[in-house]
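Table S2 (continued). Query chain:
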Amino acid sequence: MLLDVWSNKENNMPLLTTLLFLIVTARLLGQIFSRFNQPAIIGEMLEGVILGPSLLNMVAPTPALSGISEFAVFLIVLSAGLEMNFKEVVDSMRGKGVVIALLGFLLPLTGGILVGMGFGFDVNRTIFLGLCVSITALPVTISILQSFKLLDSNIARFSVATAIFNDVAALLILGVILNLPEQKSYHAVGHAIFTASSKLILLILLIVGVSLVIEKVTEKGVRIDQWSEKLVAFIGNEALFGLLLLLVLVFGSVSAALGFHFVIGAFFGALMIDRKFFLPSRYKELELTLSSITGGFLAPVFFAYLGLEFKVQIIDSFAFVAVVLAVSIATKIAAGWLGGRLIGLSKTDALGIGFILNGRGVMELVIASIAYDRGFIGQDLFSVLVLMGVITTLITPLMFRKWIMPRLTAHEV
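Corresponding output:
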């Protein structure tokens, strides 16, 4: 759960009133941006900035809103997993795709660490600055690609794979740091690394094992779509939707229990639900149900909440902010461009991946919140990291719209 560290005045609006207010205003501002051919999520995030502590201070980030935002993340990931192909995503994470994934993590991580060292930070603050710069948030990446209707593209496959790799790598390092004892002997450090790595291997084995079972079942001629229809006839279409949610929740819960973010497991759980498991008409019903709940209700709350987390008044050094923003944006673009070109992608696809990788959003805020809560960083650095996460997420679709979409459209024509 994201941490509210600011001491603003108490928000006296009831939760339901606050939620409805956020939804209506976020949707309104999102539609205004859509009318000017900009992604709706830009308006939704700006709505959070305007109503939040930075400007009008009408709505404060609260644990209740944070919980609703996390539920929105779950449904966004579920919706994307249903649209994407498991084999294509896994294939993009191995072979040539590893080049982009490694560069997309290591180059920003190095840049963040160098910034921390240049400003005289201690080891803890330097490491956490590097981790937050290296993040690419999976839910934000998926949402931006969905808004441009590009989930079935090279940009999407490599961006999503890189986001997964970056998040897992950052959370693995976070797990090692959090498990380090106060007396940091070589034996203790080695044990912490071994424990975190073992948990990651268990998660991978679970995902690969379930996917292999599904593959073997379908190879033997079992028609899963017929079984799903029998299930619908017995318990109803709504119950089928509930069972799908339960399956994805199981994967997410296992991921969280192993020390990784819930989103990682939930995404792979949703990704394994293939279109061929349902009749085309039934699959369309599931998509419509998810899109109406997510796009019309919860996704605007998620992006508005990101805007609420931003508070400009707490920033002390704007020179430091400028350097962090420049390094975080430039290293992601450079990593996507260089990695894409090295594996033979077009200039447009490579640059598009670099832009998309800048969407940090909720994952970066999660790591920053944990670091602040555990005392690894202070309130000043936490506020800068929140600002960096919000701004980089805010400008990602703008950059993509301006410099990538016209080239993709021209290519299609």
